[in-house]
Design goal:
This protein is of the alpha/beta class and 270 residues long. It contains eleven helices and twelve strands. The chain starts with a strand and ends with a helix.
Length: 270
């Protein structure tokens, strides 16, 4: 039986074991998938120990994605662009890193929600690790403009500089966001985990704006409730992204592409 895990801190809330068990059931195989709690000082030694114990693949979550990237011998294009890794594979003792976050977001937006991204103006709130993973896939989807807004300007500018060869990317602080609407507004901050909404102007929302919160919950997030009060075209949390990025990880490890649509009722019963 192949062994997999997800590593992070905190980690007890992770739905990954449930998701990957369902993927394995679709493939009609048995896998062992566990949660692993680690700290920054022992992250590398913990991963090496898991590898020595025969682990085939490892999902990496907060706060270890950048650290995982720094210790990979091989990286896929999205991991290189993001400077962050959320999927590790082990072959011949080598760490192989991938980033499936952006793929997961695009599949949720385009396949599950039916949104066309080509030519769209996009605003991302937050310049942390979550944003790092989604910038390149959004650019490749053909968006016309991408503004990264953050409380700290240097962090937003540093991220924009990573993609400076794409002229449609700009950076600003929250107070300097243009007082005009966007087609897609993505909340990539952790504000919703504290039941808060980032300090962004209401003018970014119109009846043609779709709002997407990378956080997920069993109820509307604070960001979603805010978007609804402003009569946005639609809003959604990140459960679909979670499922789609996990499916891409599973495909990397097993070569089997799961049916994610079947899992929504399992993770969020009506």
């Amino acid at each position: 039986m192949q062994r997999f895990a997800v590593i992070g801190n905190p980690i007890e809330h992770s739905k990954s074991p449930q998701i990957h068990a369902a993927f394995a059931a679709q493939e009609e195989v048995m896998i062992d998938y566990q949660r692993v709690l680690a700290d920054s000082d022992h992250f590398i030694s913990t991963v090496n120990q898991l590898q020595e114990q025969g682990l085939v693949g490892l999902n990496v979550t907060v706060p270890f994605k950048v650290l995982a990237h720094a210790n990979c011998a091989e990286l896929n294009s999205y991991a290189k662009a993001a400077g962050a890794v959320n999927t590790l594979s082990f072959k011949q003792g080598v760490w192989q890193g991938a980033n499936t976050d952006g793929i997961g977001l695009l599949r949720d937006l385009e396949k599950n929600l039916g949104l066309a991204l080509s030519g769209q103006r996009v605003l991302i709130i937050g310049a942390g690790g979550a944003t790092r993973g989604i910038v390149l896939p959004l650019i490749e989807a053909g968006i016309s403009e991408l503004c990264i807004a953050n409380r700290s300007l240097p962090r937003a500018e540093a991220l924009a500089t990573l993609f400076s060869h794409h002229p449609q990317i700009t950076a600003c602080v929250l107070d300097d966001i243009k007082q005009e609407s966007y087609d897609l507004v993505i909340n990539a901050t952790s504000a919703s985990l504290n039941n808060e909404v980032p300090a962004i102007p209401a003018a970014v929302i119109s009846s043609n704006t779709f709002c997407y919160d990378l956080a997920y919950a069993d109820h509307d997030t604070a960001f979603m409730r805010w978007a609804k009060t402003l009569q946005a075209q639609g809003c959604c949390d990140g459960l679909g992204m979670l499922l789609e990025q996990a499916a891409e990880s599973y495909f990397i490890w097993r070569g089997f592409r799961p049916n994610t649509a079947a899992l929504f009722p399992l993770l969020r019963p009506a």
